[in-house]
């Protein structure tokens, strides 16, 4: 699921589609870019699945020198606490969210900003979502 294709609702700031960083290697050449947020704000990103089941979930996020630290959740459950998206240069990282049960239809990915790396630029609270990968998990996982 491409980040920029997800329906997004944010507490503060705004979301846009960003392109132009070809060297980063975003899938489809774009990302969903959340800007002008502050600690305590959350972004809720809606995506759909056709069939209920257990899925291995991975999230590709952008890291940069003005990006924040966030808790990452899915359908109300925090899966990753304190993911730091700071990096000296713009790059992407895959964050494994684990194996989760998804319901058919709409599901909600949540990013809640909790702060910024001390090395981040002032107001370094941006977040960038390249893509969400869902792989049907084996029954025993």
Labels describing this entry:
141 residues; mainly beta; five-stranded antiparallel beta sheet; 0% helix
User: What proportion of the residues is helical, as a percent range?
Assistant: under 10%
Number of strands: 10
The biggest sheet amounts to: 5 strands, antiparallel
Count the DSSP helices. 0
Report Rg: 14 Å
Through-space gap between termini: 22 Å
- Could you name the ranges where pLDDT drops below 50 across 5 or more consecutive residues? none
β-strand percent reads over 45%
What structural class results from the helix and strand content?
Answer: mainly beta
Mean pLDDT across residues: 95
Which sequence of SSEs, written as H and E, runs from N to C?
A: EEEEEEEEEE
Name the strands of the widest sheet in spatial order: 1-4-9-6-7
What does the overall shape look like? globular
Oligomeric state of the chains in view: single chain
């Amino acid at each position: 699921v491409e980040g920029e294709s997800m329906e997004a609702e944010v507490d503060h700031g705004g979301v846009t589609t960003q392109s132009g960083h070809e060297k980063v290697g975003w899938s489809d050449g774009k990302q969903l870019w959340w800007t002008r947020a502050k600690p305590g704000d959350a972004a809720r990103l809606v995506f759909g699945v056709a069939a209920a089941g257990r899925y291995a979930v991975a999230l590709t996020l952008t890291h940069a020198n003005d990006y924040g630290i966030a808790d990452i959740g899915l359908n109300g459950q925090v899966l990753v606490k304190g993911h730091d998206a700071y990096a000296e240069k713009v790059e992407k990282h895959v964050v494994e969210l684990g194996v989760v049960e998804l319901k058919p239809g709409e599901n909600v990915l949540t990013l809640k900003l909790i702060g910024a790396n001390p090395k981040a630029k002032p107001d370094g609270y941006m977040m960038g979502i390249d893509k969400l990968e869902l792989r049907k998990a084996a029954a025993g996982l």
